[in-house]
Specification:
Residues 10-67 form the HTH lysR-type domain. The protein has 316 residues and is of the alpha/beta class. The protein has 11 helices and 12 strands. A 5-stranded mixed beta sheet has the order 4-3-5-12-6. The chain has a 5-stranded mixed beta sheet with strand order 9-8-10-7-11.
């Protein structure tokens, strides 16, 4: 096929153009088939003609007609591209039951609470030989870890991953609630703004990013709380809130958890239109077509959606 033609640096995409024009017998129809512009196809044909020193296609009243050389080239091109697709681009089918290594998820501490229990139960059934590992890379290293495959998926609120290089799929929408002592003097299920501002506040500055949504909203609207306590931890809050008159504003999933474990706390609706927390699964584009990564994404999307959320928003 390529006699007297150097194949070094040859662009295989030119063969796709050759076949599209050959099959369509029209430059415009070939462009439509390929999803590119007509000038793009014409430029590719120009490169092909120069490479093979052959016109390849002759203009006719209805489009183009292949030359004898084009017939030979088209047959060879079809064989070459079929071999590339079959031998190089098709992965072996992914069998989770045979996996003995790790599935690695980037999760915050809240993300572990929301996602890990169901992930663990699900993967113990479908991939019983595998290990699940939760990691919390620094934001600066997250994309690099995902690109290298050190992290399979990042699940939760990771706004830094909206940058180029990553894809994402929305899973859940969570809200903010206020947490008070169960027998707090304020008994209303919804706090007024006056009540909210009159209380002493505990403020969480954890490694997770969800609290940034709240803090940015308050700063944007110039709402100043009376901050009594700052802490980097969520897990101590039931003891702190349950033994004080403080209030803390946090994602409703953790409020659900604290109330269901019998802590001396209850949830109340905040008086503010705080933006919701959109939770996604993120993956790097370099693994977009990986059979392993596709399977993982399918499992996560199946497990977590608005219809299957085990942490429903408590207020209508």
């Amino acid at each position: 096929m390529l006699n007297n033609v150097s194949v070094r640096g040859f662009d295989l995409n030119l063969l796709r153009v050759l076949l599209a024009v050959y099959d369509a017998r029209s430059v415009s129809r070939a462009a439509s088939m390929l999803g590119v512009s007509q000038p793009t196809v014409s430029a590719a044909l120009g490169r092909l003609r120069k490479t093979f020193d052959e016109p390849l296609f002759i203009k006719t009243s209805s489009g183009v007609s292949p030359t004898a050389r084009a017939h030979v080239l088209a047959a060879g091109a079809r064989e070459v591209l079929l071999r590339v697709e079959n031998d190089l681009l098709v992965e072996d089918a992914f069998d989770p039951g045979k996996v003995t290594g790790e599935f690695v998820f980037a999760l915050t501490d809240l993300g572990e609470m929301v996602f890990l229990p169901r992930l663990l139960a699900h993967f113990q059934r479908l991939a019983p030989k595998a290990t699940l590992r939760s990691v919390a890379p620094a934001p600066a290293g997250m994309i690099r870890a995902m690109e290298s495959g050190d992290v399979d998926l990042a699940i939760g609120y990771f706004p830094d991953l909206d940058a180029a290089g990553c894809y994402r799929q929305k899973l859940l929408t969570h809200h903010f609630v206020c947490l008070l002592r169960a027998d707090h003097p304020i008994t209303d299920s919804s706090l007024s703004l006056a009540q909210f501002l009159s209380l002493g506040h505990a403020v969480v500055r954890a490694d997770g990013r969800s609290q940034e949504v709240l803090e940015a909203y308050l700063e944007r609207h110039r709402i100043e709380r009376r901050i009594v306590l700052r802490t980097p931890h969520f897990m101590s809050l039931p003891m702190i809130i349950g033994r004080s008159d403080l209030v803390v504003t946090l994602p409703h999933a953790i409020g659900h958890y604290f109330t269901h474990i019998g802590a001396n706390v209850r949830m109340a609706r905040p008086p503010l239109a705080i933006p919701r927390i959109e939770l996604y699964q993120h993956w790097h584009r370099s693994h977009h077509h990986s059979a392993r990564n596709r399977w993982l994404r399918q499992q996560v999307a199946q497990l977590f959606s608005a219809d299957t959320d085990e942490w429903p928003y408590p207020f209508k």
